[in-house]
User: Fold these one by one.
Assistant:
Number 1:
Amino acid sequence: MAFPFGFKTGREDESNPTVQFCQERHKKGIDRTMGDTQGIPFQRDESAGSNSHEAITQLNIDCYECKGDLNDKEAIVRMAENAATDVGATVLGKGSVSYPGRGITAVIFLAESHILVSTYPEYRYAIVEIFMSNSRTDPGECWNWLYEYLQPARMSVNRDVHYVGDGNGVALHKASGKLI
């Protein structure tokens, strides 16, 4: 799917040494999935030792004037699951709750982290969070699936890249936001 507004996941500050380190690891195909993967295989770079870093990408999207059915829990869960599997993420579980007449909250638990959707149909508003700790999975591509379902007239997209240090006390954070 193509994002209708030419959404791009952004650029990191290439002069930052941590960003350079993460980009080099990405070029080499070295990534580490954080958290309990419950037996799901993933690449781990044991040679990096205590100075390794990870780039974790988080999209937060505020969706306004949505045309999609914001009370259809099953459809939203299905779309989020399809989004995850389409980009190669591993679904570990899912959960959802309906608030009668007030929308739903759905979460897809991934080996790479999670996708969360909360809806407020009385305002035709939804919040989507896509959190990916594996550089081979693109949260922007996940968003394309949910965009097709939610059909917001306008949105605010915030992309955060968290650079997590592994044992050396370094944790860097870069955020950018754009109203579309």
Number 2:
Amino acid sequence: MGIEDALGEKILTWTDRFQNFFVKECDDFTSRPRWRPGIDVFGWYDEGYEIIYKLRARFPDVQVKPQFARYVFSVNERREHAGLLPISLPGKPKAGHICISDLLRGSERNRAQGPAKS
């Protein structure tokens, strides 16, 4: 395929670590995928990009597209990185949502306690 031995070994080691430590993707939008203890997940992610850069340099006419962020970051983290709003299921609070009744209850509590002391 034209990949030098050192890069080939790096790819094999990187994928072996994935096979040995990755547990599962999560079914919600906010949880990060699960990994077994004993691996620096963000280091694995960074190493993946090092491999991508080397492959792009080696094969400039080929589109080498990384698809491994989903194994490290939650759906909403990836959406935020892409400049998109987070997703939430119907009936679940949205990011930045403040419930007006909680706000009113807090205001009533503050009035009952009297003025703040400095």
Number 3:
Amino acid sequence: MNIVHKAGNTHRNADGLCRWELANTPDNPAYVPLEEEPQIPIEGINIADIGTLFLEEVRESYKQDKNCHISTSLVDRDLKNTSLVNSLDEVLNNSYSEGKFQFLMG
């Protein structure tokens, strides 16, 4: 490839592809400071004190649902108790065997 100099005003406008990229630092004449996101201070922390009556209602709802009762029994006692695991519904039994189970409130 040969580069040929062409004098005159026609070819003095170089496009962005023919120049090396310059770092955006204060040394660069085209430096543009990046805008930082404003730091938002934490104004407070909210801690909820859930009453014992609510927690008792949650415990009772777990006892009324067969699968929840078995799952909480597994967590409270022995996680490897095969008779308890086998008494779960098939879908929950498979999920529990894969290590995927959760307790839902409500």
